[in-house]
Inverse folding.
């Protein structure tokens, strides 16, 4: 928690610095056709959108941002010429005038029902001097009203009449908090840097898309420091590539901050996402996710797609808020929702906000479903999540005599095994399979875990190891596998019904209709039982009830199959040596 508090303090410090830098700088008036030496240029952009004002357009006098009547506000492309740069000249007493760099020092902005540039000495009946106030709807935005009006406030407005354009609104509802009245004033140094400076002001750099995801800033500290020292597109790109490389090999678990919910850990199957109980967090592979970087084509900005490694599917856009929401999973990357991750600053809840491409906050409903909701005072915990790097996975072991066992088939590599030994299996022959111990193994490799001390669980370190075992005759399933009516095709791990002190792979009984998720098994193997050979013929485990077949194949001690046992002979059946009397 201390680490998170430190991260939050860094973010708040960053926000504070940004807010301070946004205090408007007023320029001296141009003289003799020359801009003053202290002139500060701004991009002016709509700050808030809604159904009436759907685009956050820029104020610009260039073709494409205007029509025959005046200045439009429906073009959200960052201006690339001087006609998109504005400076503010004046004071509170006399009001402020807006000059456009591309239009020159002799013209100022005039606002009426439609707005355009006027000669600075014009006496036309249009507003050309203004007052500026901070927006109450958006803390980093400003609102502008006509200066010197005695009959009320006439505010700049993003009018939707005849297409979104700069107009004014005098109305009882027209306050500094009105959506259509809020504008960003984005300071820029020059046109060459304007696009990136706009991204920094708006918090839409790719650095912002990745830096707060746990682990990224630490892993990419060198690239982040370089960007901090020189913020431009090149250093942004370098950090982004480093972040993408880190995310490509890192796994996460996502847990809701509302601890009163019975199910709070984000999980998924192939079709939909829903949370599971916190007790399952470490031992349920469906709680493990990857953040896959992806670009939003409309803006070129990165976000992440949430990939559930066990379901092998991407989280879609959040469902509408209902009591039992179903947020879908999608097999294709293009179908997954594009999410942003930021630190929550609402109330006292410490955690992260995950927003989908429709800007909806991920919210936890009472029965574990997720949907979109903005949250409200006292309930911000259910729209806030902790995100932790997933470094370990636990597998419950089942005790038989003095040892414990389990099979595993996982969607990620394992670099180390604690509390047990891991074994891969050779192709069965003569009713047995040779087991080979391995210190690590690749994803989707069937293994058998054996604890000689009868431990209750094995703790696996998540991660790829160079040269990890990736070959095993054991197959497996990531999700629960329906075998109803096809039991004879599988040999599952379990006790020998004929001798419950022995374990091995047996044909399941007809009562066993499915193989649990993340278990390993033999498929289409000959016979109805396979003994385990760890250097000598012996046996092994699982919770799935076995049905050892008394008619299983019989072998002599050389491994040759025999048709019939002869009295006095020593044979092997179901992995057990016996003498025919």
């Amino acid at each position: 928690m201390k680490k998170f508090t430190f991260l939050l303090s860094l973010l708040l410090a960053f926000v504070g610095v940004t807010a301070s830098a946004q205090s408007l700088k007023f320029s001296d008036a141009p003289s003799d056709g020359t801009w003053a030496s202290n002139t500060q240029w701004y991009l002016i952009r709509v700050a808030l959108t809604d159904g009436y004002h759907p685009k956050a357009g820029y104020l610009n006098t260039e073709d494409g941002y205007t029509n025959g009547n005046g200045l439009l506000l429906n073009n959200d492309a960052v201006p690339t010429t001087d006609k998109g740069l504005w400076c503010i000249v004046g004071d509170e007493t006399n009001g402020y005038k807006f000059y456009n760099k591309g239009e020159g020092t002799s013209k100022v902005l005039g606002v009426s029902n439609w707005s355009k540039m006027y000669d600075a000495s014009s006496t036309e009946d249009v507003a050309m001097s203004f007052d500026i106030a901070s927006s109450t709807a958006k803390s980093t935005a400003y609102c502008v009203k006509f200066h010197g009006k005695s009959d009320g406030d006439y505010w700049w407005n993003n009018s939707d009449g005849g297409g979104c354009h700069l107009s004014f609104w005098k109305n009882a509802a027209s306050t500094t908090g009105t959506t259509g009245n809020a504008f960003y004033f984005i300071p820029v140094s020059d046109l060459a840097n304007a696009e990136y400076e706009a991204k920094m002001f708006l918090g839409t750099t790719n650095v912002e898309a990745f830096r707060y995801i746990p682990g990224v800033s630490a892993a990419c500290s060198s690239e982040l420091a370089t960007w901090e020292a020189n913020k431009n597109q090149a250093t942004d790109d370098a950090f982004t590539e480093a972040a993408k490389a880190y995310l490509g090999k890192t796994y996460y678990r996502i847990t809701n901050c509302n601890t009163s919910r019975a199910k709070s850990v984000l999980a998924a199957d192939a079709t939909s996402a829903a949370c599971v109980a916190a007790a399952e967090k470490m031992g349920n592979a469906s709680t493990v996710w990857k953040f896959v970087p992806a670009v939003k084509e409309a803006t070129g900005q990165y976000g992440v797609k949430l990939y559930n490694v066990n379901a092998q599917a991407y989280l879609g856009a959040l469902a509408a808020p209902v009591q039992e929401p179903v947020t879908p999973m999608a097999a294709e990357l293009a179908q997954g929702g594009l999410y942003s991750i930021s630190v929550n600053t609402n109330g006292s809840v410490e955690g992260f906000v995950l927003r989908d491409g429709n800007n909806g906050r991920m919210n936890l409903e009472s029965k574990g479903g997720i949907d979109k909701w903005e949250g409200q005072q006292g309930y911000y915990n259910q729209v806030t999540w902790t995100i932790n790097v997933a470094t370990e996975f636990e597998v419950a072991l089942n005790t038989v005599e003095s040892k414990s066992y389990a099979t595993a088939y996982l969607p990620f590599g394992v670099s180390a095994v604690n509390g047990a030994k891991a074994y891969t299996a050779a192709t069965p022959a003569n009713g047995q399979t040779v087991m080979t111990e391995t210190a690590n193994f690749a994803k989707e490799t069937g293994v058998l875990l054996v604890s000689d001390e009868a431990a209750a669980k094995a703790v696996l370190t998540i991660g790829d190891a160079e040269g990890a075992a990736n070959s095993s005759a054991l197959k497996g399933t990531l999700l629960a596998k329906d075998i109803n009516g096809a039991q004879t095709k599988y040999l599952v791990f379990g006790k020998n019904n004929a001798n419950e002190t022995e374990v091995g792979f047996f044909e399941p009984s007809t009562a066993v209709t499915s193989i649990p998720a993340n278990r390993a098994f033999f498929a289409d193997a000959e016979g109805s039982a396979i003994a385990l050979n760890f250097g000598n013929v012996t046996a092994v485990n699982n919770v799935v009830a076995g049905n050892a077949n008394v008619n299983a194949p019989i072998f002599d001690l050389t491994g040759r199959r025999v048709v019939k046992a002869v009295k006095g002979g020593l044979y092997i059946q179901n992995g057990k040596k016996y003498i025919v009397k």
Observations:
- The helical segments are 2-21, 191-202, 206-210, 216-219, 221-229, 233-248.
- Residues 2-21 form the longest helix (20 residues).
- The two ends are 69 Å apart (CA to CA).
- The CA atoms of residues 59 and 324 lie 44 Å apart.
